[in-house]
Every structure is written in structure tokens, then in C-alpha cells.
Amino acid sequence: MTIARKPTLVTGSHRSGTTWTGKMLALAPKTVYIHEPFNINNSDVIESSFINWFQYVCEENSCQHKEELRKIFTYYYPLRFNLSKARSFRDIKKIARDQSKLLYYRANSYTPIVKDPIAVFSAGWLSETFNMNVLVMIRHPAAFCSSLKLKGWKYDFSNFLKQPLLMKQFLKKFEDDIREYAANEKDIISQAILLWNCIHHTVNIYKDKYPEWIFVKHEELSSDPVAQFRKIYASLNLEFTPKAQSCILDSSSAHNPTEQVSGNEFIRNSKANIYNWKNRLTLTEIERIKESTIDISKLFYTKYEW
């Protein structure tokens, strides 16, 4: 089955607003939000062959992944796979519900809004293979590092080393550091710095290679969400409805918390959230992040944004 309308991939670095962006875009009529098919823990979506975080897919290695992803983008439900995992009548009811929804989306030609920062290194192949619009989120390195610090999210850099095609295509210049970090675990700020550099170095390559893609800085989106989302909707030929505007306002207005709240992380005072990193990081950490990312961060941010 072919995709009736052009799907959209929302990618970029994790902790850059991809979930918020994807869900706000999926407020458009006849669209559906699809969550992280490249996430190796997202087993309810697909019988996945992904074994590495930030799996790199290209023509050279795509044969094992292409059909899996096509099934996701055409709302195929892995019924047999999920039935094999069912342990209760409640599980069976959920499976029936999920399959019914996907059949409805397929029958009515809903447009997929695929949110997946873990697919960032595969964005070019996804765009070309499935004729996707691509929106790439960019975030200030200090904000990215502070968010990983807040979450306590560490990264095993051996996931990169296990992918020689990825290392050759995008990460060759970081190979020495990646090998060192894979062999000897570093502090979370150091890990975040290297991850930010790897991802945004790749994003900068994309800016030159794919000028038709949409590149959005998290800070710009957060400063005026309604106006920015209206522009994005227009670029993607999505209908910007009063409901979408209302939900965007509700998710980002000044009466919301300035920091994430457990169980409701995506309701935030978006303007206040832009510079939360100034409170989360020490001056020493900020200076270290600035010095260690400047060669790449200067391509996206001015000195006044520090």
C-alpha cells in the first residue's frame, strides 16, 4: 500500500522539543502522531530489528529495515507479534483497540507525523526512501546539556562504534573522543557535550545538503509558539485550526510551570523554559560547554545567546 499523502519526520537532538512539536503538528485534521519507531524499547510499534541507539540506516544496510518502517508509515499493526505477548484479557482489548485505530487511519488516508530524534542520523535516507517532509529541531548546547543533567540520561558511545557506516559518514572527526568515551565512562556534562557536537555537526551537513528541509531552533519556537507553528503548518500544507491554536497556547503559556512537572512534562511556560539552563548549570559547567561546543555552536547561535 502506498502512502496517500506526504508524511513528516520530526527529528533533531533529543530534548530539543521534538515531542512537543510532533504532538502540536498532529493536531492538524487527518494526521496521526507516531512515536519513535527507532527507539529500541518501543516494541509495541513494530517487530524491530534495531539494536543500537541512533541506528544509522542508508541504502547500503536498508534491506532489513525498509519493510519494517514501511509498515509503520502505512499503519500496519503487528497483530501476531502483539498477541504473542498478551497476558490478560485487558491486553487483548488494547490490541483490538489499537488495530482498529490503525485500520481507520489507513482507510481515511491520515498523514503520519513521525516524531523520532533517535532517527536523526537516518533522516536523509528516510526522506528519500519514503518521500518525507523533514523538520529538524535544534537546541542551544547549554540547554541540551542541562536537560540531560536534569534527567540523568547517560549514553553508551559504543552504540556509535558498532556502526562503522555511521562513523564513516558523519562521525569520523569525533572518532578518538567516541572511542575514549566508550572505553571510559565520563561525567554527564562531558557526555552531553560530545553528543551535542555529534548531532549538530550532522544537522549542519543536512542544512547544506537538504535546503528544502525545515530547520527550527527550539528557542525561536518557544518564544512565539503560535506564530512559529502557524508558519510550520503552512510549510507542511497542514490546516492550522482554532483547536490547534488553542492547544498550542495551553501547552506553552505563561501560567504554566517554568520547569517540567512529573506526569505532565509537555505543559510548560515556553518562554521561561528557554533559559532554564542558567539555573541548572554552574558557571564552570556553562563555560566548559561553551568552550567545547563553540566550533559547531557558532554555526547556530551568536555569542549573545550565551
Please give a structural write-up.
By secondary structure, this protein is of the alpha/beta class. It has a single domain (8-75, 110-305), classed as Rossmann fold (3-Layer(aba) Sandwich), CATH 3.40.50.300. The protein is built from 16 helices and five strands. The protein has helices at 18-25, 66-73, 79-85, 89-107, 123-130, 141-151, 158-161, 164-171, 175-183, 188-209, 218-223, 225-235, 242-252, 270-273, 277-280, 283-297; strands spanning 8-12, 31-35, 111-115, 133-138, 214-217. The protein has a five-stranded parallel beta sheet with strand order 2-3-1-4-5, with helices on both faces. Helix 6 (141-151) packs across helix 10 (188-209), helix 10 runs parallel beside helix 16 (283-297) and helix 12 crosses helix 13 (242-252).
Any descriptors?
5-stranded parallel sheet; alpha/beta; Rossmann fold; 306 residues
Chain-wise SSE layout:
Blueprint: E1 8-12, H1 18-25, E2 31-35, H2 66-73, H3 79-85, H4 89-107, E3 111-115, H5 123-130, E4 133-138, H6 141-151, H7 158-161, H8 164-171, H9 175-183, H10 188-209, E5 214-217, H11 218-223, H12 225-235, H13 242-252, H14 270-273, H15 277-280, H16 283-297
Parallel strand pairs: 1-3, 1-4, 2-3, 4-5
Helix pairs in contact: 6-10, 10-16, 12-13
